[in-house]
Amino acid sequence: MSDIVIRNATVDDIERMAGWAVAMAWETEQKKLDPDTVRKGIRAVFDQPGRGRYFIAERDGEAAGTLMFTYEWSDWRNGDWWWIQSVYVAPEHRRQGVYAALYAHVKHAAAACADVCGLRLYVEHHNTNAQRTYESLGMVDAGYKMYEAALLKPRT
């Protein structure tokens, strides 16, 4: 049995997390991301912690995966949803409990905060492997479709 440890990500992890984010976007959506933009986006979370929080899973002492959560205020519940995002497990560490450990860590942290009303995430319709993983951990389909109106502005 391998040893999985979850730790807070640091700025020293940005390069690895950016590489993982680029890989994840390609694997799940065949979207090619600009690595420099991704690095800046990850750095922005460290610069403004109110945007979210990153964790790193280490398996047998090696960085194996990551997860970020962001916040969404719910006036209906007078509390925050923590949105799980930017999930990635390196291929050589998949099916080894890495995501389950990340999820358990975040779920425990959320349960310890009185102002957190739950955890949410979104997943591509065709990503059935991820859907099975989330369901195996007790998450359920919330019954929503997600819509967006992207504002395509150049970012510096």
From TrEMBL:
Residues 4-156 form the N-acetyltransferase domain. One of its GO terms (molecular function) is acyltransferase activity, transferring groups other than amino-acyl groups. It comes from the Bacteria. The keyword Transmembrane does not apply. It holds the Pfam family Acetyltransf_1. Keywords: Acyltransferase, Transferase. CDD domains: NAT_SF. This is N-acetyltransferase domain-containing protein. It comes from Arenimonas metalli CF5-1.
